[in-house]
Amino acid sequence: MTSVPQLSLEPAAENDTSIPRHLRYAWDHEWLVVDEGNATVGITAFAAKVLSGVVHLRLPVVGSWVEAGESCGRIESLTAVSGQYAPASGRVLEVNTALADDPGVVNAASYADG
User: Fold this and answer.
1) Which of 23, 71, 81, 106 is the most buried if burial means most Cβ atoms within 10 Å?
2) Could you tell me the pTM of the whole model?
3) Beta strands in the chain (DSSP E)
4) Which tens digit of pLDDT belongs to each residue from 36-88?
5) CB under 8 Å to 89, separation ≥6 — which residues?
6) Phi, psi of 50 (to 5 degrees)
């Protein structure tokens, strides 16, 4: 039997600038920010680090409806395949199509272009 690593639930130090404080975070390492009623979502830097070497993304279809907590995409890396889960329910208005050409941006800039 293998043991599952335990993640610390301690809050980040107040001076830790690597974790954007204006984002909302889901337990499964997605983040969300709402601006004028529209949400932008992504994965955390921790998830990007664990999934080092992202090589392919399956993003949700524009116009589709996603339910909070349900699978809406997939992230494939050199070491693993992981589901992406919707942190909130809603209609997909657009996706980051640039990630099709360079999915590694997720690793390099998970809170910005990734």
Assistant:
1) 106
2) 0.77
3) 24-25, 30-35, 38-43, 54-58, 65-66, 71-77, 81-85, 90-91
4) 999 999 999 999 998 889 999 999 999 999 999 999 999 999 988 999 999 99
5) 65, 66, 67, 68
6) -65, -40
Tokens matching residue 64: 């589709």
Residue 62 near residue 94, CB atoms below 8 Å = yes
Residue with tokens 């992202």: 54
The CA-CA-CA angle for residues 23, 26, 32, to 5°, reads 35
CB of 77 closer than 8 Å to CB of 53:
yes
Residue whose pair of structure tokens reads 């524009």 in the numeric block? 62
